[in-house]
Amino acid sequence: MSDEGLPEPTRFDLLSSSRPYLIGPFDKLTIDVFGIEDLSKKVQIDASGRLSFPLIGVIEASGLTPAELAQEIVKKLQGRYVRNPEVTVNLDETVSQVITVDGQVKSPGLYPVIGRLTLIRAVATAGGTGEFAKLNDVVIFRTVDGQQLAGLYNLKAIRRGYYSDPEVFANDVIVVGDSQARRLFKDLITVAPLLTAPLVVLIR
After folding, report:
1. Counts of helices then strands in the chain (DSSP H, E)
2. Which fold has domain 28-93?
3. What pLDDT is stored for residue 170 in this prediction?
4. Sign of the dihedral through C-alpha 136, 191, 198, 99
5. Beta-carbon-side half-sphere exposure of residue 66 (alpha carbons within 13 Å)
6. CA-to-CA dists, residue 56 to 39, 77, 89, 91, 163, angstroms
7. What is the pLDDT of residue 74?
8. Does 198 sit behind a cis peptide bond, omega within 30 degrees of 0 on the bond before it?
9. With a cut of 50, which residues of the chain have pLDDT below it?
10. Fold of the domain spanning 97-202
11. What's the confidence (pLDDT) of residue 191?
12. Which end of the chain is more exposed for a tag (fewer CB within 10 A), N or C?
């Protein structure tokens, strides 16, 4: 149990985290090679995290940042095919880096994580809470170092500034107002009302 909130997932947990963005399977990218139109193209990463690029063949892209992928393409093109290549890689669409928002929100579903995303913003992205949502029953499920953790948060307490709005990460599952998820914390809630800090438990 921790009163400091859920720990951040490691790079290994996510294969790709939200800051900096790391490329994952099925992501769509735009690759521009300055001055060479034939090498500038839109690509999609395959299921194994690879992409096929003209002249240089298959590249292992999964787990790289867009900047690292650009450098990898530069290295493979340089000298052999292009004298001084300038390459930029931009993310068009992410499929690998998503959170799940479920429960008493207006639009439950999968939402992309690009840049820094907090719990309040994630709930807002899902259309906000329903009219009768239990704002003190918000659970974030997360895997860190292979362990499954759950954190219980109170949206009212966060909005009133009692504790900070926690960052959420790719692969997190956020459940709003679900009494079944809250049962994980039933023995702890009586001693900690969630007004000053969230509750975190290890799911066995």
Report:
1. 6, 13
2. wza like fold (3.30.1950)
3. 86
4. negative
5. 22
6. 11, 7, 16, 21, 50
7. 93
8. no
9. 1-2, 16-18, 191-192
10. Outer membrane lipoprotein wza fold like (3.10.560)
11. 46
12. C
